Amino acid sequence: MSSKHQTANERVSLDRDTTQAEHHVGHEHGGEALFKALFFTLGFAVVEVFAGFWSGSLALLSDAGHMVTDSTALGLAALAAWLAQKPPSNRYTYGLVRLEILAALFNSLLMLGLITVIVIEAFDRLADPQPVKGGAVMLVAFIGLLVNLAVAWLLHHGGEGINTRAALLHVLGDLLGSLAALVAGAVIWATGYMPIDPILSLLVSGLILVSAWRLLAESVNVLMEAVPDQVSLDNVALDLGDIPGVRRVHDLHIWTLSSGQIALSAHLELDSFEDWDRVLQVSRARLDNKHGIRHVTLQAELGLGQH
Q1: Average confidence (pLDDT) over 20-30
Q2: What is the span of the domain harbouring residue 274?
Q3: Is residue 228 part of a domain?
Q4: How far is the C-alpha of 160 from the C-alpha of 263, rounded, in Å?
């Protein structure tokens, strides 16, 4: 192998090491918290499924359905968090960070499907109320509430990535479901009013629908490489254009690689190539400090009439 090829390979290796270091510093996946949450959620899901069928409570079965769905969602999220930490390769030059976006997308679709099933069953039960064992529902729902609070605490302190937030969304839905089941059990135990069970199931489904739809929209925006909500394309263009020596900014693109990782590419028309090292250094610092953009690719060009 020639020294020229060796130098090129060394540069590629250096770039990859830098990308991986930035990835670990700037992005928290929360894999450990996800695995712990999976253990607690899956364990109680089994208990709640049997209790839901035995008591005849749709509110409890809805919460059990959330638990089972969360077990799958948390498993996928934990797997995606682990895979996302793999270093870049010749084929996946950014690594596997986009896997958490795909997992979040799947999680939101899974929640929408579950909500549909619950709503259909709730309307059926409103038309034909079923007997429910209120005391048993109260006990199981209270235990479920404690489990969900513990899991939510784990995820809240386990990272800020979209994948962790997607898992937290599921658990918060479970928490609401446990609370609804607890209220339903208490009302049935005290008054014998059976329709409260499907009514509260519909209420919880509506609350979860709003959050699930937002998560779905966020995931789709990332996959469509839309400009992140927290970044203004116009402000970035103005900040780059205000750098001394820059005549014009064009072909500006900003997109999200994964949570906490924003990428940018642009062409900068310069007064002179002699200023390029300074312009590049100032541009990178300004993009990082003012907009939180670290994955930057800039191409220098001479302004019209300067060729």
Answers
A1: 43
A2: 233-302
A3: no
A4: 18
User: How many structural domains compose the chain?
Assistant: 2
Question: Does pLDDT of 114 surpass 90?
Answer: no
Residue 264 pLDDT > 80: yes
Weakest mean pLDDT among 45-49, 170-174, 175-179, 248-252: 170-174
Averaged pLDDT score across all residues of the chain: 80
Q: For residues 193 and 288, state if they share a domain.
A: no
Q: 90-94, 167-171, 278-282: which has the highest mean pLDDT?
A: 278-282
Same domain, 188 and 85: yes
Residue appearing with tokens 């969304």: 169
Locate 271 and state its tokens.
Answer: 């007064």
State the Cα–Cα distance between residues 205 and 209, nearest whole angstrom. Answer: 6
**pLDDT for res 163:** 60
Reference 222, options 94, 71, 35, 70; nearest CA is: 94
Query: Is residue 129's pLDDT more than 70?
Result: yes
